[in-house]
Write a structure and sequence with these properties.
There is one protein chain. The protein is of the alpha/beta class and about 270 residues long. The chain folds into two domains: about 10-100 and about 220-270, Rossmann fold (3-Layer(aba) Sandwich); about 100-215, Rossmann fold. Helices cover about 45% and strands about 15% of the residues. It has twelve helices and ten strands. It has helices at about 20-30, 50-65, 80-85, 85-90, 100-110, 120-125, 130-135, 150-155, 165-180, 195-205, 215-230, 250-260, and strands at about 10-15, 35-40, 70-75, 95, 115-120, 145, 185, 210-215, 245, 270. A six-stranded parallel β-sheet has the order 4-3-1-2-9-10, with helices on both faces. It has a four-stranded parallel β-sheet with strand order 6-5-7-8, sandwiched between helices. Helix 5 crosses helix 7 (about 130-135). The longest helix is centred in the N-terminal third of the chain and has 17 residues, at about 50-65. The structure holds D-glutamic acid. D-glutamic acid binds near residues 14, 45 and 77.
Amino acid sequence: MAVARPEAPLGVFDSGLGGLTVVRALKERCPSESIVYLGDTARVPYGTRSPETIIRYAMGCARVLVGQGVKAIVVACNTVSAVALDALRVEFDLPVLGVIVPGARAAVAAAGGGPIGVLGTRGTIASGAYPRAIAAVSTRAEVVGQPAPLLVPLVEEGWLEGEVPQLVVRRYVEPLMQQRVRAIVLGCTHFPLLKAVIAEVARELSSHEVAIVDSAEATAEDVEKFLAERGLASQRPANEATLELLVTDLPKSFAEVASRFLGHEVENVRAVDL
Ligand code: DGL
């Protein structure tokens, strides 16, 4: 593996906006890290595509980030983490970290031995990546997967509250509650933007406490640990860390939703081609 510079940025990508949930967690946990984020807004959603197509798209995203001189890639997308992580690791000469293993660990901790529900895209649920990752942490944990494809366009649209998201979320959460899950993993990085609705619906439908697990924080923890162990953590003052946002389409609308989400004005989102 080529020698990376600690001051090089971290590369983070997702099919669209969802990966910003990971960026937010990274900025909190690793404030000295500069980040180059790529949202493949021209091709979102990934979760409805075949594994071959997802791998091809993921390769294109990683190539752009490698071209930006990043020291490691954080795949802020469950769908890509589920089907393309190995292919990315084989293809690129730098560390590639995903969101599923940290999410699985956080889910086992939150479920207290009870059944774990996973909400994800069709691609993620069909891959079986969560049951595999959860089984590696706890052989006893029962896992119930529920594809929730309509939540991705709702988030991309910025439709995060009110009747429509509530009805859609209820449709997906109800089967999990029938299985009496004790924790629901937000197994798509878009879903934390709907966390309040998901938590409310789960509360309404359940007589017991249900933990809502967002893998973003667990991923940021893993990234922090990984960088420290490899001597790759940036030493720059936090106020000198930068965030560069790249998209493959519609930079303006991305900037609007990203500003709302990150809680500060986001300017100069740059359009790139894969
Ligand atoms: N945010 C992504 C994930 O974590 C992908 C959503 C999509 O493009 O379908 O799975």
